[in-house]
Amino acid sequence: MKFIGRKEELKKLQDLSQSQRPILAVIMGRRRIGKSRLVEEFSKGKIFLPFSGLAPTPTISDQDQRDAFARKFAEHFNLPPLTFLDWSDAFAHLSNHLTDKPTVILFDEMSWMGAKDHTFIPKLKVWWDLTLQKYPNVFLIFCGSVSTWIEENVLNSTAFFGRVTLQINLEDLTLPECNEFLKEVGFKGSVHEIITILSVTGGIPWYLEQINPHKTADLNLKDLCFNKNGLLVNEIDKVFHDLFSDRGTIYKEIVHILSKGMRDREQIRAELNYAKSGSLSGHLKVLITSGFVSQHYDWSLKTGKLGKKSLYRLSDNYLRFYIKYIEPNIPKINTNSYRELSLSQLPGWESMIGFQVENMILKNRQLLLKALDIPQSDIVADNPYIQRALARQKGCQIDYLIQTHMKNLFVCEFKFKRRELGLEIIDQVKDKIKRFSRPRGYGVAPVLIHIGGVTSSVYDDHYFYRIVDIADLLDG
């Protein structure tokens, strides 16, 4: 299928390829995000030499990794089988086959390739410094899902200090790109079905590739998430094993806590019963770098300044859905209990999908800001907002709050309902705003973001500053 999205990333790569000097780039991102596919697209019209590490298991050795490299090397250059006993030897042989033609060398899942050999990075650095500098048309790219390994051994390493020209962190495809992707695979479902699928898959290309265009959203999700052999039932083990190996337990505990809602570090520590002397900050950084958790600071509405307290949110749609709806139902899934059921009839299904949609929109907030005509330069802070209950203050939670320099507060309410919303939605938002404590002199503009439609009476009331149909965000 045609390549969709990543225009900005491709442009950066293509601009650098015109520089007539050897380039070293690093591309990071979660599993299935499309790192290798991006490099493949960039490499069109060039000599492309991809190499990939073997997935880690207790029995995989450093020699196994070199053997995998040797097999791919022989395949690229139509050579008989050969063996490399040392990485310097492997790199030297590769150098002997380079030409003055534009060439892209990809080391995919680099952490797997070099993790068991402490000489891998030093020898790679020597090869880059002494050999690849002679080839101005070579573009060397490191990719990996274990972003922390690349950070420690490449980005923050003295070995490659000042040598990395470009760093790319791939994120989910945007809503319009996801919409285009589903059209490309042939899916012709309704907007509601498209949003339902995306609420589970997020903007992860490989997950979207699994959608069967000849089935409804309901049947697709049943196959992927509620069949004992479903790809997204078993994906969780691959995600945590490939990324964290035998350290996966602590990360699973953290994401389970965050699946209940935003937490600050001390709240996470308390729920984990984790020692203050422990490396909780490091674990959180791993999850952020890997693309599963997002971090933002609370802020003062009165001063507009960021607070000292970081809040953490589980931002990966698949992981959220797995923890909240697949994992608790594994016993039923293993007995195929969902074979004859409609997912929309499952307890709490609509509410669950509503939370998933909310998370998806937050990851596409630039589209929402565009729909609200709010320039990024006007924003003081924007994020979900929790007002803690105090002696003189009621508690409330705002799905998405935008504070601007002009002392406006946009209170955004997300609603994902199959039916049209009536005047009751106005009463609900009014009650929330009544409990919301705001600084003197600030204006409050209520915003409704919906998918199922609203009645004409809601429009006629003119209560909302804007009413945004999520379907419109699919078109950008």
Write structural notes for this entry:
- With 476 residues, this protein is an alpha/beta fold.
- It folds into 3 domains: 7-169, Rossmann fold, CATH 3.40.50.300; 176-361, Arc Repressor Mutant, subunit A (Orthogonal Bundle), CATH 1.10.10; 365-473, Trna Endonuclease, Chain: A, domain 1 (3-Layer(aba) Sandwich).
- The chain has 22 helices and 13 strands.
- The protein is globular.
Walk me through the topology.
Blueprint: H1 7-16, E1 23-28, H2 35-42, E2 47-52, H3 62-76, H4 87-95, E3 103-108, H5 110-114, H6 120-130, E4 138-144, H7 147-155, E5 166-169, H8 175-184, H9 191-201, H10 205-209, H11 217-225, H12 231-244, H13 248-258, E6 263-264, H14 265-272, H15 280-289, E7 293-299, E8 306-314, H16 317-326, H17 330-334, H18 349-363, H19 365-371, E9 379-387, E10 396-404, E11 408-415, H20 424-435, E12 443-450, H21 456-461, E13 466-469, H22 470-473
Parallel strand pairs: 1-4, 1-5, 2-3, 3-4, 11-12, 12-13
Antiparallel strand pairs: 6-8, 7-8, 9-10, 10-11
Helix pairs in contact: 4-6, 9-11, 9-16, 9-18, 16-18
State Rg.
Answer: 25 Å
Q: Supply the CATH architecture of the largest domain.
A: Orthogonal Bundle
Outline the low-pLDDT stretches. none
Alpha-beta content class: alpha/beta
- Please indicate the count of domains: 3
The dominant shape is globular
- Rounded to the nearest angstrom, the distance between the terminal CA atoms is 22 Å
Strand content: 15-25%
Give the integer mean of the pLDDT values: 92
Largest sheet: 5 strands, parallel
What is the total tally of β strands? 13
- The helix tally amounts to 22
For the largest sheet, list the strands in their spatial order. 2-3-4-1-5
CATH class descriptor name of the largest domain: Mainly Alpha
Q: Could you say what the CATH topology of the largest domain is called? A: Arc Repressor Mutant, subunit A
**How helical, in percent, are the residues?**
40-55%
